[in-house]
Amino acid sequence: MKKILSAFVVLATSASSAQAEDILSIIERQANVTRPVPPAQNPYNYTLDVILSGKEGKDVTAPFSAKLLINPSAAPEERVTIVSTSEEDYPDEFEQLLKETRDVEKSAEDLAEEFWCEGEDDGLFDDEDMSAEAFTVLSETETEAVIKPNLKFMAEIMMDSEESDDMSKSERKMMKKMMERLDGEFIISKPDLTLKSMKMWLTRPLTMAVVAKLKEMEVSQSCAIAPNGFAYTDTMTMHVKAKALGMTMVQDMDLKVSGLTLR
What we know:
Layout lengths: L1 H18 L3 H7 L14 E13 L2 E12 L9 E6 L6 H10 L6 H8 L19 E6 L3 E6 L1 H9 L9 H13 E8 L5 E8 L3 E4 L2 E14 L5 E14 L2 E16 L1
Antiparallel strand pairs: 1-2, 1-11, 2-3, 4-5, 5-6, 6-7, 7-9, 8-9, 9-10, 10-11
Helix pairs in contact: 5-6
């Protein structure tokens, strides 16, 4: 009886494995399939929790925290409601975050692009990058895969720009240097190819200018599924360590999105 049961387990496992399609086959099969894209405007208000900390030289900055309510469809000056902050004096990084969210040049569509994990033009699996040759598979199970996209794609994310004919010589040089130092991994669900999380980091320091060097940089992001079925960025962390004019500076930022409310 034990031998029969053992044989049955082996057969069942083999059948299950045979039915599980590998990630590269899924990517190639969906190469010409039009994937649904999230709304051009984010239909949700949400809560944004912010934690900032850092160090400049020997001076360590106490963590600063804030809770914000974001209405991406409101007029720029009314998009952010500050619910609470740990300090009355805002650090420069928090002021910059407020400024970027309230930027009159940033449309509701621009904010939506930042909110969704994969927008219409982000293209982790767009026509150009859909080819299986653009990815290295690090590991996979029946339900998800850990992949490394090509370094050019990751460099464009880090630099927040795409390579184009009007890119300056210095920008092209910086992108080349970034590509030489990047590593990262993306976790993709199977078989729907939804981005679950990503992490990118520098493998060695990057000289930005004669007196400035980026010693460490790591960015991570996780995604959750909104009520409308599309993935949005629910957490993001960034760690940066740089040295300029002989002084070492460290900055850490943690963002968490919650409380999605349909308007």
